[in-house]
Design brief:
Elements (H helix, E strand, L loop, with lengths): L9 E7 L3 H8 L4 H11 L8 E7 L10 E6 L4 H19 L7 H7 L6 E7 L14 E3 L8 E9 L2 H7 L6 H5 L1 H19 L6 H8 L5 E9 L4 E5 L8 E4 L3 E5 L2 H8 L7 E2 L4 E5 L5 E5 L11 H6 L5 H13 L1 H7 L7 E5 L5 H26 L5 H8 L4 E2 L3 E3 L10 H8 L3 E3 L10 E6 L6 H12 L5 E6 L21 H12 L3 H16 L18 H11 L9 E5 L2 H7 L7 H4 L5 H16 L7
Parallel strand pairs: 14-15, 14-18, 18-19, 19-20
Antiparallel strand pairs: 1-4, 1-10, 2-3, 2-4, 5-6, 6-7, 7-8, 8-12, 9-10, 9-11, 12-13, 16-17
Helix pairs in contact: 2-9, 5-7, 7-8, 11-13, 17-19, 18-22
Length: 615
């Protein structure tokens, strides 16, 4: 993704089902659980680089001794920072007891994070600040073990104000800035109620069944309860991902299947998906059950997980990204008028590499077909040199652009700063024949178009191609997200800017005003959630008209080389990614009423010049 956005936090959970001594004897290390948690988090580091945290719950602790610990970091490499600090604690213990790692009981007694239940989190800050206080897990402490809770999640909620009202809680400044704080207060409210009914044995299923229906958003959450219970739960639409693996030694859950497979070296079919509305509940003895907390609704798993967010090492995601690129090959062939001899293919940035392979496979299939047709048309008029030239024809591929380390500058004056920004990407000189070659570059998505305009198009134009074609493996991003991706301001989207520009150019400003007035009336009636009115802004135009206008908007005024933009279609997206049908940022079809409210509010903010997100 050439335009960076913050997105999709990551969750990691491990429940050791055996005594710590077992892992020393069979796995060679008393820190087996911590080692695996580190790997599970590191294999998901793509999901959060603003911060990280972990919580540990110790089982069978004598009354009066602490049993719930938490550590958080917002360092530049937060995962490494967390485990470095734990490593220092172990080293300190070894100074006084060199062989302490051979004694599980001593390790558990003296090392705070040596416990049987581990919860890790990686944070991308879509709400709140990047202070360490906003890093998950959050904890609630109480003298009664069953009222203690640690909570972390991958989510966004759009009804935090209503949540506080429903439990009659007056939030402070911090709680107002954190959706996890709102979720924590609600769950803890019902946990305390349940604890009162069943002292130190609160029914976690009942707690979740009371709390979860109140949440409007997409979420996967993990919790540790002071009485030894723990849980992982997923929203009713399955918007946010959750996977788990269970054997006789461990119960594991994470946001990505591939991270579990790699960490524990297990097969694809051994890692299961936690289905929408379900919760994995583990009791204090390590027994587990899958409980249906919310009635499952239409599956709307986030398609961006497949396009960009999740690591491509998952075999299904890899195949789907190949297919996304492959489905674009026909329209690209039409745009270059099938002139493969004078076309160079590349990708920007590295996250688009797999889709690029799919695009190339489509080009190769076409070229191979042409080779066969040409060879057959020769009949007997064939010689070795002629045949060798035809067989050796290849699709021209080059590594055109290289992303440099993030450039920082003390220059604040706009013109000079833009000059620095364009150098975020560098180019490979000598790869393009000036005024002869068409340059086709594929990106996994185009959000704001800022990097394309200020950097990529400017730099590619230095190579002097006849034409530049930018291909997006995702459809046009037209609407805000409110379920875990930091795309909440309407004016940020290049597709929205294109629609507004077309309406103004064609004398259709009345559509903008009518949309605004209708949303204002819905807002006054408290009905913003009932309809996504913003969709009518796009109705007068075909996707191709929007794409053509986007091409104009991302072309710097001093660049004369023609620029075209091609987007994936919604239909091809769903064919390529059949299990992740969540497409609200492309279509405006939100899975929960809160999505409509956020979208309408974002448009109001845009018209009224309020530069805040819509929720």
């Amino acid at each position: 993704m050439s335009d960076e956005i913050k997105h999709e936090c990551g969750l990691a959970f491990i429940r050791l089902r055996k005594p710590l001594s077992y892992y020393l004897q069979t796995r060679g290390s008393v820190t087996y659980g911590l080692n695996k948690l580190y790997l599970l988090m590191e294999k998901q580091h793509n999901r959060g680089q603003d911060g990280a945290g972990l919580a540990t719950l110790k089982l069978n602790i004598e009354p009066g001794n602490p049993f719930l610990y938490r550590l958080r970091s917002n360092a530049s490499q937060p995962i490494a920072d967390l485990f470095y600090k734990i490593g220092l604690e172990i080293q300190e213990l070894e100074k006084f007891q060199p062989d302490i790692t051979k004694h599980p009981g001593l390790m558990k007694g003296h090392l705070p994070f040596m416990g049987e239940i581990l919860l890790g989190h990686l944070r991308y800050g879509t709400q709140g600040k990047n202070n360490v206080e906003f890093c998950h897990p959050f904890i609630k402490r109480n003298l009664v073990p069953g009222k203690n809770i640690a909570l972390a999640g991958n989510f966004n909620l759009v009804n935090t104000d209503e949540l506080f009202q429903k439990i009659n809680f007056d939030p402070g400044a911090f709680e107002k800035q954190s959706e996890l704080a709102a979720m924590m207060e609600v769950i803890h409210h019902f946990l305390v109620e349940e604890e009162g009914l069943h002292p130190n044995e609160p029914n976690i299923v009942n707690v979740l069944k009371k709390a979860a229906p109140l949440f409007d958003g997409g979420f996967t959450i993990g919790g540790l309860i002071g009485n030894g219970y723990s849980f992982i739960m997923r929203d009713a639409n399955g918007i946010r991902p959750a996977y788990y693996y269970i054997d006789g030694e461990v119960i594991v859950a994470a946001s990505e299947r591939a991270s579990i497979r790699t960490t524990f070296n297990v097969g694809e079919n051994e890692v299961l998906e936690l289905m929408p509305g379900s919760a994995l509940i583990i009791d204090d003895a390590g027994n587990y059950s899958i409980e249906q907390i919310l009635a499952p609704k239409e599956r709307r798993a986030c398609s961006f997980e497949r396009i960009y967010f999740s690591r491509g090492s998952d075999e299904k995601i890899y195949r789907e990204r190949i297919a996304l690129g492959n489905h674009l090959s026909k329209i690209v062939l039409d745009r270059i008028e099938k002139d493969l001899k004078n076309t160079i293919f590349s990708y920007i940035p590295n996250t688009a590499e797999v889709a690029f392979y799919g695009l190339i496979k489509g080009m190769e299939s076409y070229l191979n077909k042409i080779k066969v047709e040409r060879i057959l048309s020769w009949g007997k008029d064939i010689d070795e040199e002629k045949l060798e030239q035809m067989v050796n024809r290849k699709i021209r591929q080059e590594k055109i652009a290289i992303k440099d380390v993030k450039l920082r500058t003390f220059i604040t004056e706009d013109a000079n700063r833009n000059e620095m920004v364009q150098h975020v990407y560098d180019i490979t000189y000598g790869t393009v024949r000036k005024d002869e070659d068409t340059l086709v570059v594929i990106d996994d998505s185009i959000v704001r178009g800022t990097t394309l305009k200020e950097s990529i198009i400017r730099m590619l134009s230095r190579l002097g191609p006849k034409k530049i074609i930018v291909v997006s493996s995702a459809p046009q991003i037209r609407y805000p997200d409110c379920y875990g991706i930091d795309m909440s301001k309407m004016g940020d989207f290049i597709a929205f800017k294109a629609a507004i520009a077309l309406l103004e150019e064609r004398g259709m400003k009345n559509v903008i005003e009518e949309t605004y007035q209708k949303i204002k009336s819905l807002d006054a009636a408290g009905q913003l959630h009932t309809e996504n009115v913003v969709r009518q802004l796009y109705k007068p135009f075909s996707p191709e008209e929007i794409s053509d206008k986007i091409a104009q908007l991302i072309t710097p005024s001093n660049i004369q080389i023609p620029v075209e933009v091609i987007y994936q279609t919604i239909e091809d997206l769903h064919e390529c990614c059949p299990t992740n049908t969540g497409d609200w940022y492309f279509t405006g079809n939100y899975p929960t009423p809160g999505g409509n409210r956020v979208c309408n509010k974002a448009f109001l903010n845009y018209i009224e010049g309020v530069n805040v997100r819509g929720y």
